């Protein structure tokens, strides 16, 4: 057993309590095992990220965010992630999101004013036909009620699924475990309502650019975050997302504590 493999195993053991999903690759230069760990800390402009403006957004961009509210803090605590909300940028200065009041459109200024942290990601395959489909889906469902039942079930599910994400569990096994647990805890009954990340997944599915084949009801904003390039997704993804940058970032306690998500 090589020293590199020993380091991989010791690192994995140290991560057991954190419940971080991992993936073992072969290092391209040496062909030795290299452990990738699910990144759960916040990349900000102060620790390797990019500061962008709304002008840098493109229609179809997925925007993850958080606020200082108790609800947002609770979601971040349960999912062990720096984001608690997901929305879609439709272009022309408009965002669409599913919130407690239902599916609604918000202007760029309203969105910027309402969130404390905002980070954008991009599906590289989005074309004009997909943008049209995303816009049509948003306007078709605008005003629909929030999936309160779905979000209530998310809390116990988010806690239970952490057993599926223990270090060194193969990605395929982790994927089956999470989907199986979701089938039990979330049930088979569906309705025409959405919570935030569910709406994003359904919109992309409608545009024939599915981000994953997993049930959108099991996907949280944290799951969307981990679908980005260089991270370890919890469920199998059809397409990794590109990090675009931060429109808004919460201040970090210190540069020493600002550990980035990127490799």
Automatic annotation (TrEMBL):
Keywords, in A-Z order: Signal
Domain of life: Bacteria
InterPro entries tied to this protein: Papain-like_cys_pep_sf
Signal peptide segment: 1-23
Protein name: Distant relative of cell wall-associated hydrolase
Organism encoding this protein: Hydrogenophaga pseudoflava
